[in-house]
Amino acid sequence: MALFVFEDELNRMINLKLYGSYAYKELSYIFDGDHVAMKSVAAKLRKRADELQEKAEHMMSYLNTRGGMFVATKITKPPSLDSTQLSIENTITYVSTLEEVTNKSVLKLYNSAVNDPELQGFLQDNCLHNHVAYMKELRDLMTNVKRVGEGLGQFLIDKKYFSQ
User: Worst-scoring range by mean pLDDT, 24-28, 118-122, 137-141, 150-154?
Assistant: First the structure.
């Protein structure tokens, strides 16, 4: 029996963050490879993987503080993206889906925790604000990627946007 009422839901979120970190890390090394060679994209993806890992660890600490216990689940391999057809646009679509699933999970837990203002505050401060900002960044980037197109456009996006 869980001491902390929302232990299972928080564990699910932690495992989602770890899965996201794993997926971003895989993508970062694909973009870093010589067959794609977009070093700035790779660095940005790796940075996001590290952020998700840190957030998962922060949530684990919070779970322990509240009397819960972290339970790891098997992290499944993300669906393979065909590196020959890999583009910034496909990658943004893929990671946007990951972020939307995670955001829905956070919102569900937030809405369930009506009688737990501390948990709601934790989720608001550590998840919701960051997700909203990051998802806006992804939408803006997608608009620009579509605007410039494939080939040279992707090269310019890699150099201009991702090198910041």
Answer: 150-154
- Please tell me the pTM assigned to this model: 0.85
Task: Tell whether 1 is covered by a domain.
Answer: no
Q: How long is the chain? A: 164
Contacts made by residues 98-101, CB under 8 angstroms, sequence distance 24+: 98/19, 98/20, 98/23, 99/20, 99/131, 99/134, 99/135, 99/138, 100/135, 101/16
Number of domains in the chain: 1
Q: Is residue 2 part of a domain?
A: no
Q: In terms of pLDDT, which residue wins out, 86 or 81? A: 86
Whichever domain contains 91, its CATH number is 1.20.1260.10
